[in-house]
């Protein structure tokens, strides 16, 4: 009897730890979401969207992520997930090349892979790729920044690292738009913050020292925007150097309201996470999967940030 009760207790513990799904039964789909960076508001909002959809569909969802946006940290997480053999893996790869090998191993284990936000160069990886139209978003940022600086002056781009598909696409869209349609804008190129707030701040401080006439900055991701905004604030350049940021976390929204940045390009990470779960379930059940799903972005300004439809797209630190 004591042995039987111990076994029952173990079964109850396993059931209690089964994940974020709202359903049950032996045929419950098991999905793991591997974020690009644990704790960052973009990826936490993505996780919230995924969790809500998982609960709706009765999916057991686990969420993991590295402490830095770094393939050397994400790879062992993926390897551990693969060893656990979930039915599907949602992942935001941290490098277009370095993450091919671990994801190939997952594919060989017949784990259904859905790429969310970022991608890898190997087109055979990812039954569905769900991401913002980042080229279009980068072009929108270029137009907004050019408008803010009156169509003339020098501008700088701050990004994470080369080889991150989403920000590479934003830079491409920004550069193409500036060169094609904004002849009065002098493009100073891109510098990389390694997704570190302190490094982004250092880059801006150095840029201001080298070129006091700097007119504008496009910060291509959340941490770059946070660091660049802090540097402008400390340098007393608020309103003088215009900035457009990509992403809309709480820190960016505060900067917008404080006049540190003039516009934000807000993605829809919650929608990306929800659609990722939907595509994962379809893949596991042998149903039709959509190979590519672009999602929209919203331009957020001080004038519209408090409107209900805009407030819904702002990122969250948790669910």
TrEMBL record:
Residues 38-287 form the Periplasmic binding protein domain. Belongs to the bacterial solute-binding protein 2 family. It comes from the Bacteria. Keywords: Signal. Signal peptide: none annotated. PROSITE patterns: PROKAR_LIPOPROTEIN (PS51257). Its main location: other. This is ABC transporter substrate-binding protein. InterPro entries: Peripla_BP_I (IPR028082), SBP_2_dom (IPR025997). It is found in: Cell envelope.
